[in-house]
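[recover] target loaded
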């Protein structure tokens, strides 16, 4: 559906203004779908992001600094998110032996099992983009990368 119909606005100051509004609207549209999917597993999108980062590091641990650098949402409090995941049993947090001020975070088998279950649902998330063919998806990815410079 066209942006103008979705937000009931016919005129924009410029194509650049419309693009900005469109990107923000589309982000919220995708984020809402993803959040609903994560809610079924008792996770937030940020918690899911941390688990995926930790799975990529596995079996090596990660520190909070690495998690912050790799998170999609740079405004998230990685320490708080890790603690929530720890209380759910999805990660372990241990003092780093070489730097007692730092901590190592590693995904547990329970966390790995949860991600494997969610991976099966990933087909639904990828299907969310089915209005685009593979070459359009690549073009959109390239354009978004170009936009960010």
């Amino acid at each position: 559906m066209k942006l103008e119909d979705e937000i009931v606005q016919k005129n924009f100051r410029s194509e650049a203004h419309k693009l900005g509004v469109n990107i923000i609207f589309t982000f919220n549209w995708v984020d809402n779908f993803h959040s609903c999917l994560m809610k079924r597993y008792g996770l937030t999108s940020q918690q899911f992001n941390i688990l995926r980062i930790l799975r990529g590091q596995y079996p090596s641990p990660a520190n909070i600094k690495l998690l912050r650098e790799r998170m999609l949402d740079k405004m998230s409090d990685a320490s708080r998110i890790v603690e929530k995941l720890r209380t759910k049993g999805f990660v372990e947090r241990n003092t780093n032996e070489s730097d007692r001020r730092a901590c190592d975070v590693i995904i547990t088998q329970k966390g790995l099992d949860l991600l494997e279950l969610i991976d099966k649902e990933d087909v639904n998330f990828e299907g969310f983009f089915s209005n685009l063919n593979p070459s359009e998806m690549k073009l959109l990815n390239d354009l978004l990368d170009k936009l960010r410079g």
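[recover] notes: Residues 95 and 103 are 4 Å apart (CA to CA).
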